[in-house]
Amino acid sequence: xxxxxxxxxxxxxxxxxxxxxxxxxxxxxxxxxxxxxxxxxxxxxxxxxxxxxxxxxxxxxxxxxxxxxxxxxxxxxxxxxxxxxxxxxxxxxxxxxxxxxxxxxxxxxxxxxxxxxxxxxxxxxxxxxxxxxxxxxxxxxxxxxxxxxxxxxxxxxxxxxxxxxxxxxxxxxxxxxxxxxxxxxxxxxxxxxxxxxxxxxxxxxxxxxxxxxxxxxxxxxxxxxxxxxxxxxxxxxxxxxxxxxxxxxxxxxxx
Length: 255
What we know:
The protein has a domain at 169-255: Tetratricopeptide repeat domain (Serine Threonine Protein Phosphatase 5, Tetratricopeptide repeat, Alpha Horseshoe). By secondary structure, the chain is mainly alpha-helical. It has helices at 3-59, 72-93, 101-118, 121-134, 139-152, 155-167, 173-185, 190-203, 208-220, 224-237, 242-253. The protein contains eleven helices and no strands.
């Protein structure tokens, strides 16, 4: 090989090395980027999985039973009622006739009540949840679930159980009153409570129970003029209610 050809060969080799270096560098960068993406996906997946496990653990935490101090005879009554209801439920579930859907969720609600009477809060909760799975707007099941969670000391779960009925603008005054009491207990501002009371009045066609409760709330907060107006409206709906008359007379005397 001549000196000139050797020089050209060296140049060619140097050029190939430079090209390989660039390609290698580009490939390394690509591998690094891919590796980073894989790690992000991996750790992100682990975080989501961990979060899901924690959430599942929280939601599936079993409620503790309560001792009702029942006699053996009282326990047998509840247990017999539960056995009969479960047998009836099985007969409904094996029957494909139309129109049994309501009977199934009503039976679950009944079972929820009976298990609650026994003090078996977890079983009671499960029965109410099954009723709601059948009929998501079953208010009796919602109220039952609220009572169970309240006794178990889980205020946030109780509130979450009743909120669907509130969002659906239930016409049931008792549900509104339960919800309002829960919001008061959690320390909601008076302006928010007033707003909920007004929503309740609109949803229940100005129920006398809501009116009287709102009147008491306004009086407790020193809003005597508003309280008087509410008592007077309540009396118009229930003219023979002497307790309403007494409240009105008391407020008028305090003017």
